[in-house]
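Translate structure to sequence.
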């Protein structure tokens, strides 16, 4: 649809969900309980109209004009160019013998309705916000009168070519099916409390005639400047023509273990207990990519940027110089305040706008805290990895296992999503703790089936040769392999 046929909401993410915006000259219901952001969304809608030279009108039956101006100021907006009709004292227009805004004949309007129409005619708006339907329902006092009122309003708005948002508070009254049948679309906002951290907010389009919108739930937040909506990444099904090839780690033996390196457009899972060297492995890949000139994005849930760079420097990997020149970007993520939807949008924009070629998620345990429901974490990860794969990005994910030596488990099973799985383990030999590394899965080609020793020698990561003479390195306490030798035959014994 073109700009002449759609009306931008002023919210980039919501417009993306709506395939450009709301079809013009129609009515839409914005539903949600108190505090979910209905008024803020409505004001953004009107402010966008001001930016585009379109007149806006806010008809308020529930809030006074000073209250609306206070909300606008909190977001840095001014309502000077928006007409506000304060009808919060609507009862004064209603005759004592009436309990509804309209006469039952649906033709003869009472004084309150005439006042409403006069304000619309004077303002000549292209965009109208009607706040709220709950007060209108109270005045009507019966479903029949309420429906007649809404039909009359729909006719008034339609004749004047207005795009209208009807705000509906569902705190006390559930979603109204009468309104859902009358309007062209319904947008639902909801807020969910969490045991710790910020609340989670979700937006969904339950109805929109004539538009191929993106269904499902979409995360959103309310910050200074209004709502920010984060569409599901499934919408971004564009793929790019990226050069095929292998991304080297910069270490010969590690590349040999992986069958040459990591294929572009694939995801890899680095699995192991705490302290086994998972972050060291991904840091090595990030540094090698930066040395090639590939941009790297590191999403760190566990470590600060400073600690990560200091550890890299101790390993002889000067990551700080690439951070300084913008080749490597390290973003510290607080899972208590960032939703998976917002995080996915951050990654998407970095990849598309800054041509990021390597993404590191350190770690999935932190990502899991942002999405407590395991089944939804899997869906989010599937969408994110599918998007990154279509963009030719090499994705490295860290997942810490519970336990240190045996009986190790993971909080969530994502191994089937990864194209390559690298396993790190501790093992003990003669009273010394050592580390082993192996590749147990690679979809895009062969890999070594050996187990190599991994160590830090002279502040350098070293992937050693194949571990020989031990059994059970990956499954439990290793034991020395005993090779039976053929028994020597006595000269007097007959040959068999």
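Result:
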């Amino acid at each position: 649809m073109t700009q002449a046929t759609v009306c931008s909401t002023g919210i980039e993410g919501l417009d993306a969900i709506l395939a450009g915006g709301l079809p013009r000259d129609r009515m839409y219901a914005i539903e949600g309980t108190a505090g979910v952001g209905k008024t803020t969304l409505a004001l953004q809608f009107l402010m966008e109209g001001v930016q585009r030279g379109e007149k806006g009108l806010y008809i308020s039956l529930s809030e006074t004009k000073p209250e609306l101006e206070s909300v606008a100021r909190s977001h840095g907006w001014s309502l000077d160019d928006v007409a506000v009709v304060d009808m919060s004292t609507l009862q004064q227009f209603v005759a004592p013998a009436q309990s509804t805004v309209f006469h039952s004949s649906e033709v003869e309007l009472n004084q309150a309705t005439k006042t409403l129409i006069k304000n619309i005619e004077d303002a000549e708006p292209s965009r109208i916000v009607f706040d709220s339907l709950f007060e209108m329902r109270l005045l009507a006092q019966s479903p029949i009168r309420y429906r007649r009122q809404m039909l009359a309003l729909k006719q008034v708005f339609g004749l004047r070519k207005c795009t209208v948002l009807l705000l509906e508070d569902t705190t006390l009254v559930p979603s109204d099916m009468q309104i859902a049948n009358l309007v062209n679309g319904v947008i639902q906002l909801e807020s969910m409390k969490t045991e710790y951290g910020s609340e989670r907010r979700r937006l969904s389009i339950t109805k929109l005639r004539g538009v191929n919108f993106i269904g499902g739930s979409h995360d959103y937040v309310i910050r200074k400047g209004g709502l920010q909506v984060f569409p599901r990444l499934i919408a971004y099904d564009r793929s790019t023509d990226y050069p095929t090839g292998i991304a080297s780690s910069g270490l010969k033996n590690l590349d040999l273990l992986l069958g040459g390196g990591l294929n572009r457009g694939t995801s890899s899972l680095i699995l192991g207990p705490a302290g086994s060297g998972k972050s060291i492995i991904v840091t090595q890949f990030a540094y090698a990519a930066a040395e090639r000139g590939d941009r790297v994005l590191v999403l760190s849930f566990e470590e600060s940027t400073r600690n990560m760079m200091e550890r890299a420097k101790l390993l002889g990997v000067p990551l700080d110089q690439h951070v300084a020149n913008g080749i490597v970007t390290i973003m510290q993520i607080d899972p208590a305040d960032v939703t998976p939807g917002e995080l996915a949008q951050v990654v998407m924009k970095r990849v598309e706008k800054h041509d990021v070629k390597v993404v590191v998620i350190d770690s999935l345990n932190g990502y899991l805290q942002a999405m407590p429901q395991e089944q939804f974490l899997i869906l989010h990860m599937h969408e994110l990895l599918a998007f990154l794969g279509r963009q030719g990005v090499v994705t490295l994910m860290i997942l810490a296992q519970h336990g240190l030596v045996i009986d190790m488990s993971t909080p969530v099973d994502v191994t089937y999503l990864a194209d390559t799985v690298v396993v790190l383990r501790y093992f003990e030999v003669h009273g010394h703790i050592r580390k082993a590394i192996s590749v147990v899965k690679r979809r895009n080609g062969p890999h070594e089936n050996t187990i190599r020793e991994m160590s830090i020698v002279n502040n350098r990561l070293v992937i050693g040769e194949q571990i020989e003479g031990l059994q059970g390195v990956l499954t439990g306490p290793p034991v020395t392999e005993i090779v039976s030798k053929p028994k020597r035959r006595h000269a007097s014994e007959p040959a068999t």
